[in-house]
Amino acid sequence: MTVGDHEYGKQQWRYWRWHFAVFAAAHFGMAYMFGLAPASGPSGNPYIEQIVNWIMYREPDLYREALGNQISSVWTTIMTIHTLWALWFAFFPKKRAVNPMPAPSAGFQAANKEASNQRAAEKTLSHGRAWVYVLMGGILEIVWAVSFKTGSIGLHTLIAIFASFDLLIRAAKVLPVGTVYAVFAGIGSVGTILAGALYLKEPLSAVKVIFVLLLVVFIIGLKASETRSVKGDG
Predict the structure, then answer these.
(1) DSSP letters for 198-211
(2) Closest CA to 71 of 61, 86, 81, 56
(3) Between 201 and 233, where is the model more confident?
(4) Neighbours of 27 (CB within 10 A)
(5) 104: three-class secondary structure by DSSP
(6) 63 — phi, psi (to 5°)?
(7) Average pLDDT over the chain, rounded to whole?
(8) Are the C-beta atoms of residues 89 and 9 closer than 8 Å to each other?
(9) According to its record, how does it sit in the membrane (predicted)?
(10) Higher model confidence: residue 7 or residue 175?
């Protein structure tokens, strides 16, 4: 017998809806901040076609400022992969097998409680490691984001994508999913901007510097709030 066949898939879609709402709101905000690039499509719905081409090919530019296009490019890739991830669990829900068992004895209950306490302790101990996973995943995100940016897509790009999201999923089992996604996207955005300035010789304007500093403060704030939450639970 199986129970909760679709619960995990529903949970993934709840996470996706939250992520998409933030994604859409951020893009509307960037449209106001950076301004939309002139529509280059035919008459009718030129912006719709431009948005579709941006999602599929990352061209032509979506915003007037390069910073907006860089952020959107990285985040759109993350959103696409997250969508595929949610669709996978929608069509292939995770099943949990439950076998009927007789009423447990007192000894079994004591052993089960001890095992549960041990798992809880292991989860607490792995909390710091989860943050290491988020950091490593963010660094790998920079690798594949820069590969997409420069057009040097290869096997290393695919490995970096799968490895970064594997680390992200592992971290999300311990840390709040919203915090993990926010920090992950923030590290990728900051790293991509800095990589563009250091290695691709892109101009680092005052707006970019302010944006990077705000993201760094935001990431540190999320990490600090999560640490306080863990200490409070303990």
Answers:
(1) HTS-----HHHHHH
(2) 61
(3) 201
(4) 19
(5) coil
(6) -120, 160
(7) 75
(8) yes
(9) Multi-pass membrane protein
(10) 175
CA distance 47 to 54: 10
The one-letter code for the residue type at 72 is S
Strands (E), 24-167: 96-97
Reported residue count of the chain is 234
56-64 — which CB contacts under 8 Å span 24+ positions? 58/148, 61/37, 62/36, 62/37, 63/30, 63/31, 63/34, 63/35, 63/36, 63/37, 64/34, 64/35, 64/36, 64/37
Q: Give 29-62 pLDDT, tens digit per residue.
A: 888 888 888 876 555 456 777 777 777 777 778 8
Q: Take residue 202 and report the two structure tokens written for it.
A: 């892109």
The per-residue pLDDT for 3 is 40
Reduced to 3 states (helix: H, G, I; strand: E, B; else coil), residue 97 is strand
Label residue 41 exposed, middle or buried (CB < 10 Å: 0-12, 13-18, 19+). Answer: middle
59-73, 127-141, 165-179, 203-217: which has the minimum mean pLDDT? Answer: 203-217
Question: What pLDDT score does 110 carry?
Answer: 58
Q: Per the omega criterion (within 30 degrees of 0), is the bond before 176 cis?
A: no
CA dist 53 → 13, 93, 212 (Å): 25, 31, 27
Sequence-separated contacts (24+) of 4-8 with Cβ below 8 Å? 4/96, 5/93, 5/94, 5/95, 5/96, 6/93, 8/89, 8/93, 8/94
For residues 62 and 70, give the distance between their C-alpha atoms in angstroms, rounded to a whole number. Answer: 10
- Residues with Cβ within 8 Å of 194's Cβ and at least 6 positions away in sequence, in order, are 212
Other CB atoms within a 10 A radius of the CB of residue 170 amount to 17
